[in-house]
Amino acid sequence: MSKAFTKESDGDEDEDALPKGLPPGAKNYMRPQGFQALRDELGQLMRVERPKVVEIVSWAAGNGDRSENGDYLYGKKRLREIDRRIRFLTKRLESAHVVDPARQTNRSQVFFGATVTYANSRDEEITVTIVGVDEADMDKGLISWVSPIARALLKATEGDSVGVRTPSGLDMIEVIEIRYEA
């Protein structure tokens, strides 16, 4: 068979897989706001970005020699990036298990979606919210539920001290406050 009819892998196949960092068989938990953000991004790509790039590529293709046509070459590359991201978002949304923290009945323990204030061994108070893998953003205090700190905090109650394994050894943290926000 001619190579023209075979699909060559560009090494990005793993990007389309389920969320990186999830333990095998684990569910892809997500808050409603994280699910909506992914859905909004998918809609933006499908309704706005992709049609715009397709229009540019078709215009550039009509200009003749495609081998030296920067608009055509860049447009095709951008189209592949958009399509890859669309596949990625679609798979993430299909595998998502939306958990609303506001519906948590046991608010005395740390579960998915909890906002936790804790003190570390250096007496620094840190506030984090335990969120899904796709929502994690440490700059905003959003940590993935599979991160070492979140795993240590899960099921802890106010006043508990739990150990977190860090590169420098075991660090003890004390839970100061637990909140569940809408």
Topology of this protein?
Layout: E1 28-30, H1 32-61, H2 70-95, E2 96-98, E3 114-119, E4 125-131, E5 142-144, H3 148-153, E6 161-166, E7 169-180
Parallel strand pairs: 1-2, 4-5
Antiparallel strand pairs: 3-4, 3-7, 6-7
Structural class: alpha/beta
User: Overall pLDDT, averaged?
Assistant: 86
Q: How many structural units, i.e. domains?
A: 2
- Uncertain segments are 1-18
Give the C-alpha Rg: 22 Å
User: What is the strand tally?
Assistant: 7
Give the SSE string.
EHHEEEEHEE
Share of β-strand residues: 15-25%
CATH superfamily of the largest domain: Transcription elongation factor, GreA/GreB, C-terminal domain
- Globally, the shape reads elongated
Strand order of the largest sheet: 5-4-3-7-6
Largest sheet: 5 strands, mixed
CATH architecture of the largest domain: Roll
Text of the CATH class of the largest domain? Alpha Beta
Q: How much helicity do the residues have?
A: 25-40%
Our count of helices gives: 3
